[in-house]
Structure formats: structure tokens, C-alpha cells
Here is the input.
Amino acid sequence: NYGRAFFLKRAKLTAAALRLLLGEEEWLNAVHDYIWNICEETNWVISYHETREVDLFSAETAAMLAEITTSLGDKLAGEVCQRAREEIERRVFEPYLERHAQLGWYKGTNNWNGVCNGSIGSAFLWLEKDPARLANALSLVLDSLDVFLHTAYEEDGASTEGPGYWLYGLIHTVVFSELLRQRTGGQVDLLASERMRRIAAYPTHMMLSVERYANFSDCEETVTFYPGIIDRLAERTGIQNLVQVLAKRDAGDLPYLNPVIPTGLMRWNYDLALRTLLWWDGSLPENIELKDTFLPELGYVKLMSQTTNGVPVVLAFKAGHNAENHNHNDVGSFILHVDGETFLCDPGRGLYDSTYFTARRYENLFASSAGHSLPVVGGHTQSSGLKRRGTIEVYDANSNPKRVVADLAAAYDVPNLRSIHRSLTLADQGPESGTVWLEDQLTFADEGEETVAALMTWLDVHISEGG
Here is the structure.
């Protein structure tokens, strides 16, 4: 409830500031009031991050206020701009310059690094007048973002956090990168690398159908992408098919133009909304083309087929390990997606509450392997940790049927378990085209353990004898 009000206030400031930028002077007082009110907040750190001095949302607030007060500076009252800059200095700039190593996310290996450093770097570019202090700040930002781009994403460009956090980690990094490229006349360009090309291609690999994605880890199945960020990233990296993620089931539904975006991680901050206006020409892709995919570093496979009457069938499978960013114990989990609807699902993220990011995380059904389409062996669900992993032994998308086979045994702490060979097969031609077969073959050092296999779905289920 606190977060809902927190983000709504910033969305309303964004809407009012954009109107003022576009010449609607009657919104001046609203912009003044919202900026001043945000400056009066006791803390820009959101309630569930209260132990942190600077978090995702205090960094985002700093970037937003810095860009608003700079881009609208000639329209705004001087005391309002000055107050905002003083609060940014006290709440974000000073802690960052003096205590960056103690902030937890600095040189971190997940989305926090990209969000916080990208936002803070942008704020410094807008506000800092002292060349030496700016150089120091940018050096810190670039050192940390270098770690982010080389650790938060696998060598094949994949994110273990899923498409939603892939986007969230990158959006402020892209904004900062383009500001810095402009400021340096193109001499510093974070987006001009082969690694960024691989990172930019990732969401298309996870796409199941229009607006639907393989949502392993703490990701939601529906992800709304900022079109300005996507268009610019596609242009700058040359991954043109990235724009497929902007396709809409209903082309009249444009949530990125709605000041309160309820989907996933989306928030309507001024810097992101402005770049929707500046970087997006309003076009939406008319067609998407999905392909079979194998991302070896992530341990992810997507197989495509269709039924005999042409209905598309998508099978997504994940091996990976159980110490990933936003980890679920989900080695061997899979998704069956038919004609835009998910039949067998990954449940995605659980409720972010006081226990979800603690040692009690795997008591939550959403994070436990008991909440995924996986075996329970001798009463044991999967354990967490880097050594709890799956190994893809067969990936064959060139024959009929298509096939993936993985060994899941290392994900379980069951001493007498030798192997769990999970085989998923997808017919691609003939009278059985679109049919999926699942086989789990377990071997033990002794007589074995009773094993129960679950299939997870959000749909209504009818259980009959034997099926």
C-alpha cells in the first residue's frame, strides 16, 4: 500500500511535468507542489528497503527530479529547483561519493547495480557543475556498470532474473549511456559492443507469444516494455528484431502512455516517459517470428511447433542452477504454451513480503520446487545453492520430434539418487504434430524412493482415473 501511493505520486508529477514541457502552463503549480512534496518525504527509500541508505527508488527519484528541474528550469521557481537539488545532494550524491562501497548494490551482480548507478550517473550529468567532482562520480558509475554488464547477464546475454528484470536493470543504464555518449561526443559509448548485442537479443528468446514470456524466477508472464528504450536499444545494437517485444494483442491498448502502469515492474518516471516521446515513432510491429532457442549459459531451451490445424505450440524448459538472481528452486521446470495461452505454467514471483528475501524464502510455494512442474523424491524437494544444478545432455531442434534431455539429480539432496533424466519431446510433423511427451527416468543406488511428479497450471483441472 505504501509503494502504491509512493509510485502514484511520481507518476502524477511525470504527467504534470510533461504537460508543462509541452506548453500547458496551467500545470506549473502542480509541478511545484509535487516536487516540494517529494522533497518533504522523510525518506526516498521505500518501506521494504528501509535498512538501506540509498535504494532503487531513491536513485530513480534523484534522476527524475534532476531531469525535471534541468529541462524545465526556465519555467520553475528557483527555490523549488534549489530545494530539489539540495535533497538530491543530501540523500543520494553525498552517500554515493563518500560511502558507495557500503551501499550493497555498488558493483553488484543484479538489476540493482544498473538501476542505481544508471540513475545516479544521469543525475550527476544533469546537475554537477564541478568538473573534477563530475569526473569522480562518472568514474565510480562506469566502474560499477562494467561489473553489472559482465555479471548480471550471462555470456550468451541471458538474464537469470527473467525478461522483467532484464528490462528494469537496463532502462536507466540505456538512458545514462545515451546522455554520456552525447556529452562526450560519442567517445564513451556503453551500447557499442558485441556483449550489448547479445544482451539486447535476450527477450526475443524468452518470448512465447505476443506479450507472453517464459517467466522463470521472479518474473511475470506479461511484461510491458518501454517503447522508447526498446527502439533506441534496437537501433544502437543492431538487434532489429528486439522491437518484436512491442507487439500488442490489442493495438489500441498502449499502457506505456498511461500514467499508472500496473503491469510487472513498470513505473512511469519522467526520464523514461520523456524518452518514449523522444525515441519512439509510435509504430508497432505487425508480425513476430519466434524460433527454436538454446541459451547454454542459462540452461534454457525453447522449442516451437504447431498442431495439425496450425495452432502454435511452444515448449520452454530450464535447467540452470538454484543460486540464481531472484532464484527459484526450479531446475528442470518447463512451460507449455499453446496459441497464446499457458497450459502448464511456471508460477512466477511470489508476494514480496518480509520473508521472501530471507532464509525462509523456500518456504514460499512460488520459490520452492514444490510449486513447479517437478518431481518430489522421497519427500524431498530441491535444495538451493550453486551446486544444485541441471545439465542439458541433449538438445535437438532439427529432427522430428524435437527433444531436450537434462539430468536434474544434482538439484536434490537425496544420497541414494544417481540420476533424474527428464526428457521433453515435441512432435513437429505428421498426425501427432504439436503433441508433447514428458518422461522422467530415475536411477538409485538401492531400491529407490517413492517419487511424486507435479504438473502446475492456473487453469481449471479435471482429474479422472489415471489422468
